[in-house]
Design a protein that fits this description.
The protein is mainly alpha-helical. The protein is built from 4 helices and 2 strands. Strand 1 and strand 2 form a beta hairpin.
Length: 110
């Protein structure tokens, strides 16, 4: 297991958590079932493609779970952390295993 992370990985992980939080908390699109869609999953998938699975877990899990706490739904924190974190982990793992064979991004993190 990799124990040291580069500055680029740490910064992209923090940026991903912040963008998932903001997109989940503030960008809401109403649907006809008295609910709403948010763009948090889009940013979750975007960052899962360029980050390793553990960092993707943090982006998806903590970004979405912090939006639950800030929105007044703190009792969903653990479940959101686990569900969204596993979602991001699986996307990252599958993308790195079966995705394109070239490096993504300027920093070659893919």
């Amino acid at each position: 297991m990799k124990t040291k992370y580069t500055t680029n990985e740490i910064v992209l992980t923090a940026l991903g958590m912040a963008l998932v939080f903001v997109a989940t908390m503030f960008i809401k699109i109403p649907n006809p079932l008295d609910g709403y869609f948010n763009l948090g999953d889009g940013f979750l998938m975007l960052f899962a493609e360029v980050l390793n699975p553990f960092c993707a877990f943090l982006v998806g899990g903590l970004g979405s779970a912090m939006a639950d706490v800030a929105g007044g739904y703190a009792y969903y924190f653990i479940w959101t952390l686990l569900i969204k974190g596993v979602e991001a982990f699986l996307i990252s793992e599958l993308f790195h295993r079966f995705g394109p064979k070239y490096k993504l991004g300027y920093y070659g993190l893919g």
